[in-house]
Design goal:
The chain has 290 residues and is of the alpha/beta class. It is built from twelve helices and ten strands. It has an eight-stranded parallel β-barrel, surrounded by six helices. Helix 4 (89-95) links the parallel strand 2 (84-87) and strand 3 (104-107). The protein starts with 33 loop residues before the first helix and ends with a helix. The chain binds ribulose-5-phosphate.
């Protein structure tokens, strides 16, 4: 353990300065292998550098909650408008048609449901991820959880070792526990720890001071949407995150629990890739809404 005496807050984030010594279009990916770069490019559009990931992995801890009861009915119509699909292998194999031809971010850890405490998550077999031709593997990190921090860091490290061996990027997902702060200091620390342990992408939450979280994370950050908000608020959340440097969203409930999920994902897509303002994207949502 490092000496924590006189631990100083960082304050030189170089906001507004682009990352130096970089030629590839994705942050922190310059030195990755060709296969990794190819998969990262499937995730982050080479023109905008951004991604709209549709997360519908909620059932693996929560069961059939609102919006993911029927993947074939509720989620399949959204797939054409997403850049990436994020789900568990059970849903991928049963409910995502193989000719959908979208990059997959596979939920690669398992072991906990909302009925128990966070427990010893295990990582799925890399050979299964390869067989499913996934473009990334997502693993949760419980930073700040006294029992689970070391175990989840070890899970991410092991997944990053395997990802590096086979050219599959890893996304570190920062967990939010009931006792954990939801501020830039916490998300900045958790995101940086994910990247330092080998994550090629970090998924975290938007917060005040988010620009510092992004600046101090050497790989792209995508934000989760969190609980369902009114559509305009959700679009404003996306806009603020992108403005602060996020490389996209990995959003679930604010899309599939929307009054009109198909309209909402198109509005989010336009905001992320075409720099549309929240007000304009909301107009688009209303126009598309059935
Ligand atoms: C949980 C996840 C979920 O996919 C994530 O929470 C995204 O969904 P939402 O936008 O509904 O928050 O990674 O670990």
């Amino acid at each position: 353990m490092a000496d924590l005496d006189d631990l100083r807050e960082g304050n030189k984030f170089g906001l507004g300065q682009t990352v130096k010594n970089q030629t590839f279009h994705i942050k922190g990916a310059d030195n990755l292998s060709w296969g990794m770069k190819d998969r990262m490019t499937r995730i982050f559009n080479p023109k905008s550098g951004k991604s709209v990931m549709l997360a519908f992995d909620h059932g693996f801890i929560m069961g059939p909650t609102s919006g993911v009861e029927r993947i074939d009915i509720n989620i399949a119509p959204l797939m054409p408008y997403a850049d990436v699909l994020m789900c568990s292998r059970g849903i991928l194999q049963t409910s995502v048609p193989a000719n959908t031809n979208k990059p997959i971010c596979l939920r690669a850890d398992a072991g906990t449901t909302i009925l128990t405490e966070l427990n010893n998550n295990v990582v799925i077999d890399i050979e299964d991820a390869i067989r499913m031709n996934v473009s990334a593997m997502a693993v949760m990190m419980a930073i700040g959880d006294p029992k689970m921090e070391a175990i989840t860091v070890a899970n991410l490290d092991r997944t990053a070792d395997l990802g590096s061996k086979y050219g599959i990027p890893v996304m570190g997902v920062t967990a939010v526990g009931t006792d954990m702060a939801r501020d830039a200091r916490y998300f900045g620390l958790a995101s940086r720890v994910c990247a330092e342990n080998g994550a090629n992408i970090v998924k975290t939450y938007y917060c005040e001071g988010f620009a510092n979280v992004v600046a101090a994370c050497p790989v792209p950050i995508v934000i989760a949407g969190g609980k369902k908000l009114p559509e305009l608020d959700a679009l404003e959340l996306c806009y603020k995150a992108i403005n602060d440097g996020a490389a996209g969203v990995d959003m679930g409930r604010n899309v599939f629990q929307s009054e009109d999920p198909v309209a909402m994902i198109q509005a989010v897509h336009a905001l992320i890739h075409d720099n549309m303002s929240p007000a304009h994207a909301f107009e688009m949502f209303k126009d598309l809404k059935k």
